[in-house]
Structures are given as structure tokens and as C-alpha cells.
What we know:
Blueprint: H1 2-10, H2 20-32, H3 45-57, H4 61-68, H5 73-78, H6 80-105
Helix pairs in contact: 3-4
Amino acid sequence: xxxxxxxxxxxxxxxxxxxxxxxxxxxxxxxxxxxxxxxxxxxxxxxxxxxxxxxxxxxxxxxxxxxxxxxxxxxxxxxxxxxxxxxxxxxxxxxxxxxxxxxxxx
Length: 106
């Protein structure tokens, strides 16, 4: 998720609508590597990634993948290999649940 945070911080989605204070805040976040450490609402990359990080830390792979669909395409592209591995993990978890259910049934 760190790579995505960097990609997302380079081009804010609403750059034309940011006030002077907001621009200063974005500049400081980019220069100092600051980011949200708790899940927060919003559609900007930092907010989406804060929620995704909380979900993955809770072991909610499927929820994380759903959250990540809200990222801008540039950020989503930078996470392509991570997303692919997460999708494989989700499929494996689903297969384990299915196999366990089948074994318990028989």
C-alpha cells in the first residue's frame, strides 16, 4: 500500500479546487511522507488507502479489494501486482472454506 500512497500523493484528484491551506497541507504531506494512520472517510487516495490498510490489517482481503476499486486509475495501476496477489489469496481462502465445508459434510 506504500507504493500506492506515493502514487496517489503526486497528483491530487481535486488539485484545481484546493485552497491555499489545502495546497500547503498536500505539499507537507508529500514532502514529509505524512499519511492518515487511521481509517477516514473521503474519496481521495489517502482516505481510500487508510480504509484499505485497516481492512487488510483486520484480515479482510475481500473488503480491501472492494475498497481499492475507488482509487484513481494511476494509483490502482501502481498496485496491480499487489492486487493480483491479494486476489489469489482471496481465491485460496474461498477454496479453503469450500473444502472445509465439504469435508465436514461428508
